[in-house]
């Protein structure tokens, strides 16, 4: 059983976080959509007004894969629901394939839940692609509700070009 | 009709709270709106606010039949995409029924887009209920795409006892 630690990400972790973001995007079959760079990640997460918080999972060097010791991450931030207040929003959550089944993902989720409760959040929200049945099962086993199926919520997005058209009005 | 779109002040929270409940009634989920205006004041006007809000205001002579001059609002916050960077998430957009058709909704949406652009946001996201055709059509007319439809994204939530259960299992430091 691999021993691992979970800790707050630091600026030096940015190259590893970028690598894992791309791996997750590849898994979601949307690798070409990642346009963020390491410079963006550094400025946006470790500058004056961070847009996100990040946890990383690290294994000792001896257990590492191809020299990587950072083998999982969870990126989150705080959002607001006018009905129930503060929420913890989980943006990305990923553990490298060869390190799955060891309780790392489960532990990350518990640590984030504890963070949510401690910071007075009413819930933890995130998005999952409907074809990602393994992830959906992982969350449902732990008591998550699928609001899109149960209540009919759909995600809409207005991209940059159309946003710029609106600001010109 | 003359109207003003401006950032909300702490004093607007009573009106915003009223309209949050009106929107929850429209969305057929009135029992789920549990936040008081005092909590809105605390969470939106503290040192690190959890949301920002714009309101639509009409002059006294155009006030609503119940006497309100604050007749619409847009509540939003900033999120982050690991693919594209900063995003503005429009959580609530609402105009009282008697003031619809005057461009208030579009005005509020455009103003949120402008605020997002100033903060280097690369996109605007929101959620809409599947049966809410007027809203789906409104956003589609501004170029919005339904990502639940095209990419299969579903909203997932842990709350209440389920969240507490998970939290209680977190390893102690």
From TrEMBL, chain A:
<dbReference type="GO" id="GO:0032918">
    <property type="term" value="P:spermidine acetylation"/>
</dbReference>
<dbReference type="GO" id="GO:0019809">
    <property type="term" value="F:spermidine binding"/>
</dbReference>
<keyword id="KW-0012">Acyltransferase</keyword>
<dbReference type="GO" id="GO:0005737">
    <property type="term" value="C:cytoplasm"/>
</dbReference>
<dbReference type="InterPro" id="IPR016181">
    <property type="entry name" value="Acyl_CoA_acyltransferase"/>
</dbReference>
<protein>
    <recommendedName>
        <fullName>Diamine acetyltransferase 1</fullName>
        <ecNumber>2.3.1.57</ecNumber>
    </recommendedName>
</protein>
<feature type="domain" description="N-acetyltransferase">
    <location>
        <begin position="25"/>
        <end position="169"/>
    </location>
</feature>
<keyword id="KW-0808">Transferase</keyword>
<dbReference type="Pfam" id="PF00583">
    <property type="entry name" value="Acetyltransf_1"/>
</dbReference>
<comment type="pathway">
    <text>Amine and polyamine degradation; putrescine degradation; N-acetylputrescine from putrescine: step 1/1.</text>
</comment>
<comment type="subunit">
    <text>Homodimer.</text>
</comment>
<dbReference type="InterPro" id="IPR051016">
    <property type="entry name" value="Diverse_Substrate_AcTransf"/>
</dbReference>
<dbReference type="InterPro" id="IPR000182">
    <property type="entry name" value="GNAT_dom"/>
</dbReference>
<dbReference type="GO" id="GO:0009447">
    <property type="term" value="P:putrescine catabolic process"/>
</dbReference>
<keyword id="KW-0963">Cytoplasm</keyword>
<comment type="similarity">
    <text>Belongs to the acetyltransferase family.</text>
</comment>
<dbReference type="GO" id="GO:0004145">
    <property type="term" value="F:diamine N-acetyltransferase activity"/>
</dbReference>
Automatic annotation (TrEMBL), chain B:
<dbReference type="InterPro" id="IPR000182">
    <property type="entry name" value="GNAT_dom"/>
</dbReference>
<protein>
    <submittedName>
        <fullName>Diamine acetyltransferase 2-like isoform X1</fullName>
    </submittedName>
</protein>
<dbReference type="GO" id="GO:0008080">
    <property type="term" value="F:N-acetyltransferase activity"/>
</dbReference>
<dbReference type="GO" id="GO:0006595">
    <property type="term" value="P:polyamine metabolic process"/>
</dbReference>
<dbReference type="Pfam" id="PF00583">
    <property type="entry name" value="Acetyltransf_1"/>
</dbReference>
<feature type="domain" description="N-acetyltransferase">
    <location>
        <begin position="3"/>
        <end position="165"/>
    </location>
</feature>
<keyword id="KW-0012">Acyltransferase</keyword>
<keyword id="KW-0808">Transferase</keyword>
<dbReference type="InterPro" id="IPR016181">
    <property type="entry name" value="Acyl_CoA_acyltransferase"/>
</dbReference>
<dbReference type="InterPro" id="IPR051016">
    <property type="entry name" value="Diverse_Substrate_AcTransf"/>
</dbReference>
<comment type="similarity">
    <text>Belongs to the acetyltransferase family.</text>
</comment>
């Amino acid at each position: 059983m691999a021993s691992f630690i979970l800790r707050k990400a630091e600026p030096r972790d940015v190259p590893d976080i970028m690598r894992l973001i791309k791996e997750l995007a590849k898994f979601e079959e949307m690798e070409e959509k990642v346009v963020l760079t390491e410079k963006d990640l550094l400025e946006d997460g470790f500058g004056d007004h961070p847009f996100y918080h990040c946890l990383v999972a690290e294994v000792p060097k001896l257990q590492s894969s191809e020299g990587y010791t950072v083998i999982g991450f969870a990126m989150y931030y705080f959002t607001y629901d006018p009905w129930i207040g503060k929420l913890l929003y989980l943006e990305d959550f990923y553990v490298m394939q060869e390190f799955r089944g060891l309780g790392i993902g489960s532990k990350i989720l518990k640590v984030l839940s504890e963070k949510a409760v401690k910071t007075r959040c009413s819930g933890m929200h995130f998005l999952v692609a409907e074809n990602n049945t393994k992830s959906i099962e992982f969350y449902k086993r732990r008591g998550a509700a699928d609001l899109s199926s149960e209540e009919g919520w759909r995600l809409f997005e207005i991209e940059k070009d159309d946003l710029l058209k609106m600001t010109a009005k | 009709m003359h109207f003003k779109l401006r950032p909300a002040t702490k004093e607007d929270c009573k009106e915003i709270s009223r309209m949050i409940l009106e929107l929850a009634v429209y969305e057929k989920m009135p029992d789920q709106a549990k936040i008081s205006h005092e909590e809105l004041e605390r969470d939106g006007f503290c040192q690190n606010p959890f949301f920002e809000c714009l309101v639509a205001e009409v002059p006294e002579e155009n006030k609503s039949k119940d006497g309100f001059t604050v007749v619409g609002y847009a509540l939003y916050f900033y999120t982050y995409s690991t693919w594209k960077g900063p995003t503005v998430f429009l959580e609530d957009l609402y105009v009282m029924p008697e003031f619809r058709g005057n461009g208030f909704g579009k005005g509020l949406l455009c103003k949120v887009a402008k605020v997002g652009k100033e903060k280097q946001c690369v996109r605007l996201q929101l959620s809409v209920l599947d049966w809410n055709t007027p809203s789906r059509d409104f956003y589609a007319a501004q170029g919005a795409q339904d990502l639940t439809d095209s990419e299969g994204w579903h909203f997932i939530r842990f709350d209440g006892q389920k969240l507490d259960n998970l939290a209680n299992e977190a390893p102690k430091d």
